[in-house]
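fyi for ur records
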Amino acid sequence: MALLCEWLMYYIQYINKTNRKRVQNSLYLYNQVMDTNGIRLFVMAAEMLNISAAGRQLGLAPAVASARLAKLEKRMGADLLHRSTRQVSLSLEGEEFLPYAREILAQEDAALAALGHGSNEIKGTLRFAASSTFVQLYLTPILPLFLEQYPGINLELKLSDTQIDLIDGGFDLALRNYAAKDSSLIGRKIANDTRILCASPEYLKIHGTPQEPRELASHQLMVFTSATPRQLTSATGADSCTFPPPNSKPRVTCDDGLSIRLAAKGGVGICMSSMWNIHSDLNEGSLVRVLSDYEVNDGSAIWLVYPKSNVLTAKVRVFIDFLLEQIGTPPVWEH
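which gave:
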């Protein structure tokens, strides 16, 4: 089934690249091979875990919806949904097919838009994966404005400060901060991701302020879970160092950037953090820089990325444009 899913996805990409007449013919032939209405019903049923409710959204009677899904499953050669008298759930095959199904629908919509067909309203569900800390600080406050501007778009947010596989998860778009770009992804850079060491004035008053990198090993350190040591370079040309330093034992390990920030403000210890996360704390004095001549300088940046295999659909394009406009150039944390 995976090979069939991939063939369908790339076939839709192909019809987007052909001329107008060939696109029309290709869409007709494609619909003979795969009933995209059935795929749309499957995606809605998978999201709602209710076949009848999904059918009603598409104007179908329960019996018609069940029959259409059964026809799709027969064509796919697999049961996509488990049904019982009490509930509906995705099968393993359904979980595998779902991200491809979403991609098929998105690319079909893009092909139709290229022909000038369909509604002028931008609509659909946009699946966005991002750092929970970044979203809380910069996206959540402006969500009402985006949803007001685009009432036809629904957002499905997957928030985690650990990296999520964009392709396997079936996401339309993700926000990532890293140095090396994944060759399977296309990205738009938002800003540099400058990282520094910081602590609260209260902590430094009690434990002292390190003047040299080697002194960090004797302090209470907070690090991100599974983080590899990051190279710190000095603007003055002094010897570089790493954080955490070799042979040090962190006092706190955590997989959430906001929690590390709050713990640092509470006086727990010294941490490394991005300027976008702590710039307001530095301005108000609740955090201060430690070893102020040093910062991470590995080319890390904040990117909005999407799979190379995806056509940049209207819902993704307007969301990217909205975020870039609202965050600004340069962003607030670089002012």
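The chain is about 45% helix and 20% strand. thats all i got for now
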